[in-house]
Design brief:
Number of strands: 23
Order of helices and strands: EEEEEEEEEEEEEEEEEEEEHEEE
Strand content: over 45%
Number of helices: 1
Structural class: mainly beta
Largest sheet: 8 strands, parallel, barrel
Radius of gyration: 28 Å
Strand order of the largest sheet: 5-7-10-13-16-14-11-8
Shape: elongated
Oligomer: single chain
Distance between the termini: 111 Å
């Protein structure tokens, strides 16, 4: 199916489904929601002023540089095959899932979303935002991300989380998101490389396997060099294979400190503290500051 004109529902929902390929270059607008399914190439505007936009691809989804997907509430995109992402995605909550396939980002791709500011200090892995626990932000689950050029994120206190089972590559300008809390999730053995400009950086690792790690460069919270590494965090624990600007993430002056655990019990329990006083001694026979065994 090819849709070149406009499909508009001023007060209802628009649903378009095709068992084969679906190409749409016009405007698809549903006041209370838009639902699309098929093996799609979208190059026009898909918008819902008061509802959810759901895009379910049956093959490989292509969002060209001229595409705009906009929702006042949320966008949900799923595709079992390769995903090409370009143009604009705009919603308070955006969830993209293409399984274990590859997501390729076009130069100039834009994301407008919201989120929350990162709490100060160290966070547990379970405390980091995910698509299931957070109502705002951009969340992508994929096999591999290859961003070819600039990926710009706007929105005050926005969240971007990318979970990749095979790796993330941010070419060229990479991720340009100076007001964004960026969470990078990597499975065991996966690698990340490229340039980031973010407000906060948390790296999450799952499992252990040889060859995994990160070689990022750029700024975090406006800081470059080893200071960017010092203000970044990694969960569940430090790992010298994950670096930004050549320094281990969460290192101090590019030195990764070893943190000793807190003892489960007081170490004083291993000491016996007694007295040299013998209760059978008579007070008038005690010698001050000298052992009475000498006499």
């Amino acid at each position: 199916m090819t849709v070149t004109g406009n499909v508009v529902s001023p007060s209802g929902t628009v649903g378009i489904g095709d068992h084969g390929s679906l190409t749409a270059s016009g405007t698809i607008s549903g006041q209370t929601g838009v639902t699309l399914s098929g093996d799609m190439t979208l190059s026009g505007l898909v918008i819902s002023d008061a509802g959810v936009v759901e895009i379910t691809d049956t093959g490989g989804l292509s969002l060209t540089n001229t595409s705009s997907i906009i929702s006042a509430s949320s966008i949900a995109i799923s595709s079992p095959g390769a995903l090409t992402q370009g143009g604009l995605l705009s919603a308070p909550r955006i969830v993209v899932n293409n399984g274990s396939a590859t997501a390729t980002g076009l130069d100039g791709t834009q994301i407008e979303t919201s989120g929350t500011a990162r709490p100060t200090g160290a966070l547990l892995k379970t405390q980091l935002p995910t698509s299931t626990m957070s109502q705002s932000g951009f969340f992508m689950a994929t096999g591999q991300v290859i961003q070819n050029g600039r990926l710009a994120v706007t929105g005050t206190s926005s969240i971007v989380r990318i979970d990749a089972s095979n790796g993330v590559t941010l070419n060229g300008s990479g991720l340009v998101a100076p007001k964004t809390w960026f969470i990078l999730g990597l499975n065991a053995g996966a690698k990340a490389a490229g340039t980031v400009d973010v407000l906060y950086l948390d790296t999450v690792t799952t499992g252990q396997a040889p060859g995994g790690g990160a070689a990022l460069s750029g700024t975090v919270g406006g800081l470059g060099g080893d200071a960017a590494a010092g203000t970044s965090r990694i969960e569940p624990g430090s790992n010298a294979a994950f670096r930004i600007n050549g320094c281990p993430i969460a290192s101090v002056n590019c030195v990764l400190l070893t943190v000793q655990g807190i003892p489960a019990a007081s170490p004083l329990n291993n000491f016996a503290i007694g007295s040299i006083f013998d209760p059978t001694d008579q007070d008038d026979l005690l010698l001050p500051l000298v052992s009475d065994e000498v006499y």
